[in-house]
């Protein structure tokens, strides 16, 4: 069935297809029944109880418009966003490109979203009863030295409505954002956000885990440095990782030359490497959420075996449909 749907969807430009899919999922979310099952493969991570370890990666539902629809596909958790303090258009269009032969996607969206207040209202309307993460970022017009201000604004606004909050400092499509992954800039950001988390935890009498999302393009010594910062600042989890700037896996293919972050199947080996190196450095100090390139039960299991406790999927679902979520949720064996 999905092969027919995909043929229709792929006649559209990628961003048009995305908007069409969001609208379809919004409708599905309103149905009084669920055409799919929610596979039960329970696990507890960061003190949260997940129905299964397969999550929707950020970027699919930036504004939280279709949470209930995505929730019916079989996911054990959903992450919405990336959201910024105020609405922004993102980078000029076209900004999404399929690499069909490799089941990859290049995007240079640039955190296009309706702003944190709209997302919060959508979350409040949702009836989804699974684990919900909210992914926060900074506005493009905010100077990098003022990035903390944007993250604090978003953290304060989403804290009450999220089960966990992800701090995205690894998108390649916002100028200088990835510089926050290094040295004093990272330590300063984490220190202040942990202090904010402590205040909000006291205010709402509930502790919400704080997760950092990092890039798969980090060198081995940089991964070790990030791991050290994560442990020292008692960050609750890490997502490994975001899209890649590398084109090595898709060299010579149509759209490979487009600027932006590469996601989908070609990212698999690079993200698994990141998980393996992180797991070695962290030595169990905090959990890893594996994201990037998962396209089969085998590729998902590789990430679990490399050290991930949870998995996130997005691009492969575009190519393969919801059945992939069902297969992963039922067949992945947790450590």
TrEMBL record:
CDD domains named among the record's database cross-references: DHOD_2_like
User: Which residues are annotated as active site?
Assistant: 171 (nucleophile)
* One Gene Ontology molecular-function label: dihydroorotate dehydrogenase (quinone) activity
- According to the entry, every stretch annotated as the Dihydroorotate dehydrogenase catalytic domain falls at 43-333
Q: Where in the cell is it found?
A: Cell membrane
- Pathway connected to this protein: Pyrimidine metabolism; UMP biosynthesis via de novo pathway; orotate from (S)-dihydroorotate (quinone route): step 1/1
Residues annotated as binding FMN are 58-62, 82, 135, 168, 213, 241, 264, 293, 314-315
What keywords are annotated for this sequence in UniProt? Cell membrane, Flavoprotein, FMN, Membrane, Oxidoreductase, Pyrimidine biosynthesis
InterPro entries with a match to the protein in the record: Aldolase_TIM, DHO_dehydrogenase, Dihydroorotate_DH_1_2, Dihydroorotate_DH_2, Dihydroorotate_DH_cat, Dihydroorotate_DH_CS
Keyword Oxidoreductase carried by entry: yes
Q: Which domain of life is it from?
A: Bacteria
What membrane topology was assigned to this protein in its record?
Peripheral membrane protein
Q: List required co-factors.
A: FMN
A GO CC annotation given for this chain: plasma membrane
Record note on cofactor: Binds 1 FMN per subunit.
Q: Which reaction does it catalyse?
A: (S)-dihydroorotate + a quinone = orotate + a quinol
Q: Tell me, in one coarse class, where this protein mainly resides.
A: membrane
The Enzyme Commission number assigned here is 1.3.5.2
Q: Which GO terms describe its biological process?
A: 'de novo' pyrimidine nucleobase biosynthetic process; 'de novo' UMP biosynthetic process
Binding-site list for substrate: 62, 107-111, 168, 173, 242-243
Q: How does it assemble?
A: Monomer.
Q: Which family does it belong to?
A: Belongs to the dihydroorotate dehydrogenase family. Type 2 subfamily.
Q: What does this protein do?
A: Catalyzes the conversion of dihydroorotate to orotate with quinone as electron acceptor.
Q: What is this protein called?
A: Dihydroorotate dehydrogenase (quinone)
Q: Which organism is it from?
A: Actinobacillus porcitonsillarum
């Amino acid at each position: 069935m999905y092969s027919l749907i995909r043929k229709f969807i792929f006649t559209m430009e990628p961003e048009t297809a995305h908007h069409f899919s969001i609208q379809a999922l919004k409708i599905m979310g309103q149905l009084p029944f669920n055409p799919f099952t929610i596979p039960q493969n329970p696990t507890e991570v960061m003190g949260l109880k997940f129905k299964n370890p397969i999550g929707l990666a950020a970027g699919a539902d930036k504004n939280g418009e279709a949470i209930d629809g995505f929730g019916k596909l079989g996911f054990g958790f959903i992450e919405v966003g990336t959201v910024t303090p105020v609405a922004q258009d993102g980078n000029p269009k076209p900004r999404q490109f399929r690499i069909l032969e490799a089941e990859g996607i290049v995007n240079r969206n640039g955190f296009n979203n309706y702003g944190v207040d709209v997302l919060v209202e959508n979350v409040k309307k949702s009836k989804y009863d699974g684990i919900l993460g909210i992914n926060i970022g900074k506005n493009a017009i905010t100077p990098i030295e003022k990035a903390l201000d944007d993250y604090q604004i978003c953290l304060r606004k989403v804290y009450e409505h999220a089960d966990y909050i992800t701090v995205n400092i690894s998108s390649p499509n916002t100028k200088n954002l990835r510089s926050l992954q290094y040295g004093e800039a990272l330590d300063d950001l984490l220190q202040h956000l942990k202090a904010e988390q402590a205040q909000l935890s006291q205010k709402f009498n509930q502790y919400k885990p704080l997760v950092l999302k990092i890039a798969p393009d980090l060198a081995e010594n940089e991964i070790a440095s990030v791991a050290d910062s994560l442990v020292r600042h008692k960050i609750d989890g890490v997502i490994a990782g975001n899209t890649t700037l590398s084109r090595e896996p898709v060299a010579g293919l149509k759209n490979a030359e487009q600027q932006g972050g590469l996601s989908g199947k070609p990212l698999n080996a690079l993200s698994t490497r990141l998980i393996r190196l992180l797991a070695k450095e962290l030595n169990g100090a905090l959990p890893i959420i594996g994201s990037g390139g998962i396209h089969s039960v085998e590729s998902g299991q590789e990430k679990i075996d490399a050290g991930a406790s949870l998995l996130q999927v997005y691009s492969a679902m575009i190519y393969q449909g919801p059945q992939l979520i069902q297969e992963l949720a039922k067949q992945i064996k947790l450590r």
